[in-house]
């Protein structure tokens, strides 16, 4: 990694050395704009390139060279993807190709399931119909705001947890903000914390664990620390209306599943298409292996990422459907989702709740019933033996507040740039 960084530094400095005064002035203005838009976020989330050991002048040349490389690549990407737009003003724009690829790949663990996917005859797998549409971000209130995994390679945990949140909301009408940190730190059977994992196994672990705690009780800290953290068991787990994990393959089954719920998917994201994406529909990916876990929330295919709301279309990206095989950027290679074990009840709430769903007041039954099992079932549960009163009491839902790290806004010295 150090060798790759040195080579990238030499290339960037060489590029900046050839700048005309007019180019240097333009790139300096671009760099100042990038700093104003994304400086704080890049410093907190780990999107800044390593500049240790460089003088102010060397750092300046390094960053100008990186900005120049980004601006040169953007029009090429637009030509390759005519229905999408790209920009050098992206939170991740100052990372080199190798640095960005490393950032993405550390989140993903190939595993046996991915290896099985390679044995599929993808040429025989049909394409999606490319007709009809569903968008869970607008058609329901069952998708939480976009989050950021930060410097931790925990995309698999965000994908699995977010998919479960939506499934539970569809079943119960209540959108919970569940703990991504608990999945990251505790789901050892699904991944290695900040060193990657598998989203389908995260869903299975959440089911087998009997639920998850709320984010307010077990907040996400790995994004700023970059470390997995030890597993805690002091918080109260929420019982979730999910069953066993369902794994599918191909665009058609993915499109069908999306009619019912959001789906966890693996994609090929460690490339400049994703690095500089701004909006529109991506129609070309390089064709490498899957390296990132996200959530499909619509049949465009619309994807919810975990790189914060300043990336892409407010944290989302759209991938062309109807291409067959593994799908665009491998989106149809290994989709997975949890079974929903209860039918929809009331209209979903528009805001995630920071408290458990209120229990109705009860009336004792005439005959004793068996104690319920603590293990969630894949089958619908039988009718409850307790009957709510005519006017059950409810606690108001509240949107949990996510406290961002109080990092001072970076000065010019933080970037090593004398702007």
Helical run tally: 13
Overall shape: it is globular
In the CATH hierarchy, what is the superfamily of the largest domain? Cysteine proteinases
* Strand residue content: 5-15%
- In angstroms, what separates the terminal alpha carbons? 29 Å
Secondary-structure element order, N to C:
HHHEHHHHHHHEHEHEEEEEH
Mean pLDDT, nearest integer?
82
Q: Bin the helical content.
A: 25-40%
Number of domains: 2
- How would you sum up the major sheet? 6 strands, mixed
| Strands, total number | 8
User: Per CATH, which architecture of the largest domain?
Assistant: Alpha-Beta Complex
Gyration radius, rounded: 23 Å
| Unreliable residue runs | 1-14, 112-126, 360-411, 413-419
| Widest sheet, order of strands | 1-4-7-6-5-3
- Structural class by sheet pairing and helices: alpha+beta
Which class of the largest domain in CATH terms?
Answer: Alpha Beta
Task: Explain the overall architecture.
It is a single chain. With 419 residues, the chain is of the alpha+beta class. It folds into 2 domains: 2-81, no CATH class; 99-339, Cathepsin B, Chain A (Alpha-Beta Complex), CATH 3.90.70. The chain has helices spanning 2-17, 21-45, 56-80, 97-105, 111-118, 136-139, 155-172, 180-186, 199-208, 222-225, 251-258, 272-275, 412-415, and strands at residues 84-86, 242-247, 263-267, 277-282, 292-298, 302-304, 316-319, 336-340. α1 packs across α3, α7 crosses α8 (180-186) and α7 (155-172) packs across α9 (199-208). It is globular, with a radius of gyration of 23 Å. Mean pLDDT is 82; it is low at 1-14, 112-126, 360-411 and 413-419. One of its GO terms (biological process) is proteolysis. Residues 343-354 have a biased composition (Low complexity).
